[in-house]
Amino acid sequence: MAGTNRRNPSRMIRKLLAALASLACIALAAGCTSPSGSPVPPAGSAASGSRPNFVFVLTDDLAWNLVSHMPRVLALEKAGTTMSHYYVVDSLCCPSRTAIFTGEYPHDDGVYTNAGSDGGYNAYNQHGDPSRSFAVALQKAGYRTAMMGKYLNGYQPADHPAPGWDQWDVTGNGYPEFNYTLNENGRLQRYGHAPGDYLTGVLSAKASAFIGSSASSGKPFMLEVATFAPHTPYTPAPRYAHAAATVAYPKTAAYDRLPANPPSWLKGRPPLAPMEQRKIL
C-alpha cells in the first residue's frame, strides 16, 4: 500500500475513508460518555453530508475476557459488528500503532519495535511517517481531527503535536493514570491525583466535548481516543476501585495447586494469600 499511497494521494484518501468506515461499528466505547454520564451523539449524527464521522477508541492490552464485564461495550457489540478473524502487521505496540496511522508495514514505515534506532517515536519521525498519517489526509479532505491519550512510545509532552491534528491532547507516561502532563495543543497542563485528574476520565470529557463541538460545526470529524488503560499498573478510577469486589473469578480444580512434578521455579511456592486473591480481582 505504501507505494500506491505516495503516487496517488487521492486514492489514499479514498482507501483511508473506507478503512476507517470499518471502525465506525466499534466507535463509541464505554469511556466515551458526556461528563454527565449520558451517551454522546452517534458518530454519524453530524450534518456532514455523505461524509461519515469516525470515533476510534484504542485501548492498551485489553483482554477479551474483560469485555463480559463491560456492559456498554457489549451493547456496542450487539448493535454493531464483531470481527472474529483479523490480522495485524505486528501486535507489538509501536509497530501496530504506526501501521494504524500510515497503513504501511514495518519494512515500509521503519518502525519495528518500541524504542531504539528502529522503533518508537524517534523511528516514526526519522522515516517521515507523520506526514503519511491518515490524519493528514483527512484534514486535507476537510475533516476536523483530534488525537487524545497515547501516541507512540518515546513521545514526551514537551514534543510538538504531530501534523494533521486540529486538536491534540497527548501525554507520555500515562500508565499510572494520575500525576501526568498533557500536551494540550502545544500547551503543557499538569494533572495531579484528585479524582477528577484520572486520565481516562479526562480523555472521556475532552472526547465528548470535541464530538459535540464538531457536530455543531457541521464539519465531518475524526477522533482517536487512545487510552493507557487497562495496561499495568491497572489503576482504576476511584469511583470504580471496588466495583468488582463481588465478581466471582474462575476457579477450577487446578486453582492454587502445584503440579505433580513442578519445575524448580514453581516448586515450594506457597499458596495464594487472601489479600493476593483480592488483588486478582
Descriptive keywords:
single chain, 281 residues, alpha/beta, 6-stranded mixed sheet, 6 strands, globular, disordered C terminus
Q: How do the strands of the widest beta sheet line up side by side?
A: 1-6-2-3-4-5
* Uncertain residue ranges: 1-48, 275-281
Instruction: List the helices and strands in order.
Output: HHEHHHHHEEEEHEH
The level of helicity is 25-40%
Number of strands: 6
Radius of gyration: 21 Å
Q: What is the residue-mean pLDDT, rounded to a whole number?
A: 83
State the end-to-end distance: 43 Å
Report the structural category: alpha/beta
Structure description:
By secondary structure, this protein is an alpha/beta fold. The protein has helices at 2-7, 9-21, 71-79, 93-102, 106-109, 120-126, 134-140, 199-217, 274-280, and strands at 54-58, 144-150, 167-171, 180-184, 187-191, 221-226. The protein contains nine helices and six strands. Strands 1-6-2-3-4-5 form a six-stranded mixed beta sheet, with helices on both faces.
Please specify the SSE layout and strand pairing.
Blueprint lengths: L1 H6 L1 H13 L32 E5 L12 H9 L13 H10 L3 H4 L10 H7 L7 H7 L3 E7 L16 E5 L8 E5 L2 E5 L7 H19 L3 E6 L47 H7 L1
Parallel strand pairs: 1-6, 2-3, 2-6
Antiparallel strand pairs: 3-4, 4-5
